[in-house]
Structures are given as structure tokens and as C-alpha cells.
Design goal:
By secondary structure, this protein is of the alpha/beta class. It has one domain: TIM Barrel (Alpha-Beta Barrel). It is 44% helix and 10% strand. It contains ten helices and eight strands. The strands form two sheets. A six-stranded parallel sheet has the order 1-2-3-4-5-6, with helices on one face. It has a two-stranded parallel ribbon with strand order 7-8. Helix 2 links the parallel strand 2 and strand 3. It is globular, with a radius of gyration of 19 Å.
Length: 276
């Protein structure tokens, strides 16, 4: 899944794709590089970000969705608002990626029950402006699993077909760097425990910047210089059974995931008998 941020304040690219033409060109480039899905979002979810009005979010995403659909892309809309999701689906989007897991808008789950498209439901504990205050867990993996099960249960109760659900452990959302690393270190456990495909979104996130901080100054690595680390995380996530990885740099990630898949297929083969 390639990321198309149509925002002026994204942590990862500083608004480089904010203009519709730039966002469309970026999405087309990601598709050319091999993205299976392009994920178009008009609301920044970086820690501390303010929410745009719904009208502004619609103004940002709808032209980009239409153009990428017209070009033959499989388009996902990254939104917490049912109104934006519905309008994007009318424009041709074929998936909804909701970082709130249906908690931000009570109309979202009923819409997803009617829509017939895949729905990505993420672990979430509040909007970006104050979410890091909620980064308190007894055991982050156990707690995240319990909260994701509650949200998938709510989705199923609302009528969302189980075959349309995807879950996301929400790296970076109401989580410290230590929480993110524990979730990744136990990702195989997360994948096995849940009954749905798992999406992992680690791309360029701040916990990677802290890991790669300058040794002399302690300054975190800038977001756009975290792609190699993202590629490593993506390959390891694929090896642990992740269904999809959401990234900014598609080309290098796709190479890494292909290597991981080939490695896994070779490792699964029966051992050849020793010569002689």
C-alpha cells in the first residue's frame, strides 16, 4: 500500500503532495513502482495535528481519488469520517482505511456494512491532538489485541462481513517507541491471535527516527531519511505474516517483500537428501 498524503502538514513529506496535481502524479508513480493499493488521505494524523473541517478533507481527496481511479488504480481512502468515505466510494475508491476503527464517527460501521468494500480497522485511543497521553498499557500486545477484538466485534455486530475486515495494530498511535518495538517483536503473535488480515504501517514513523538518532547530537533521523529502516521493518513484518505494509517508498519495499517471499518459500521446502 503506497501512501498519498494530500495534506499541508504531513510528518513524512511536509506537504509535498498537497496540490491535487502533485498528489495524482505521486499516486501514479507509486502504482508504476508496483503498489497494489494507493491510500489517499486528507487529514494528517501526526501527533498534535489539528483536524481539518469535513469540507476541506473532501476538497483535498475527491479529485485525487477520481484521477487515480480513472488511471486504473486500486484506491483506498484514509479517513475517519463516514461522509468522506461515502463520497470517496462514490468516486471509485475500493477500500476504506479508518485509523479510528469506527470510534471517531458512529456512522462509519453502518456505512461499511452497506458498502461491500474492504475496511481497515486500526487500534486507536483518540485523536492526534491528545493521543500520546493515552499511551499507557499493562501489556501493550495483550491490550491492543483485546481492544482490536472489541472493535472487530462491533464491526461484525454492525453487519460488516468478516471477509471484508482488515486490522492494524496502530504503530505510533498512542504508543511510545518501546510499545511499537514490542508490537513488532511480537507481530507473529498478533497475526496468529487475530482472525483477520493484518496491515502494518511503520513507514517513516518517529520510533525509527529515535532508533537512528545522530550519535553526536541525539537528534532523531529526519522522516524522509528513514526509508531504509522502513524497508527492513516491512520485510520482517512480511516474514511474520503481515497481509500488507503501508509505505511511502514502494520500490525498495516491494523488492524486500519479494525477497522475503522467496526466502520463505525456500525455507518451507522439504530438505533435500544428502548426496550419497
Amino acid at each position: 500500500m503506497g501512501v498519498v498524503n494530500v495534506t499541508p502538514d504531513s510528518f513524512s513529506d511536509g506537504g509535498l503532495s498537497f496540490a491535487p496535481d502533485a498528489a495524482v502524479a505521486h499516486g501514479l508513480a507509486l502504482l508504476e513502482q508496483g503498489a497494489d493499493i494507493v491510500d489517499v488521505g486528507g487529514e494528517s494524523t501526526r501527533p498534535g495535528a489539528a483536524r481539518p473541517p469535513a469540507e476541506e478533507e473532501l476538497r483535498r481527496v475527491l479529485p485525487v481519488v477520481r484521477e487515480l481511479v480513472a488511471a486504473g488504480g486500486f484506491v483506498s481512502v484514509d479517513t475517519m469520517r463516514a461522509e468522506v468515505a461515502a463520497r470517496a466510494l462514490d468516486a471509485g475508491a475500493r477500500m476504506v482505511n479508518d485509523v479510528s476503527g469506527g470510534l471517531a464517527d458512529p456512522a462509519m460501521l453502518p456505512l461499511m456494512a452497506r458498502s461491500g468494500v474492504p475496511y481497515v480497522l486500526m487500534h486507536w485511543r483518540g485523536h492526534a491532538a491528545g493521543m500520546q497521553a493515552n499511551a499507557v498499557y499493562d501489556d501493550v500486545v495483550t491490550d491492543v489485541l483485546a481492544e482490536l477484538r472489541a472493535r472487530t466485534g462491533a464491526a461484525l455486530d454492525a453487519g460488516v462481513p468478516p471477509g471484508r475486515l482488515v486490522v492494524d495494530p496502530g504503530l505510533g498511535f498512542a504508543k511510545t517507541p518501546e510499545h511499537n518495538w514490542e508490537l513488532l517483536g511480537r507481530l507473529g503473535e498478533v497475526v496468529r491471535a487475530l482472525e483477520f488480515p493484518v496491515l502494518v504501517g511503520a513507514s517513516r514513523k518517529s520510533f525509527l527516527g529515535h532508533l537512528l538518532a545522530d550519535r553526536a547530537t541525539g537528534r532523531p533521523r529526519p522522516a524522509r531519511q528513514r526509508d531504509a529502516a522502513t524497508t527492513a521493518v516491512s520485510a520482517l513484518a512480511a516474514a511474520q505474516g503481515a497481509w500488507c505494509v503501508r509505505v511511502h517508498d514502494v520500490a525498495s519495499t516491494l523488492d524486500a517483500v519479494r525477497v522475503t517471499a522467496r526466502w520463505g518459500s525456500e525455507a518451507a521446502r522439504p530438505a533435500r537428501p544428502a548426496p550419497g
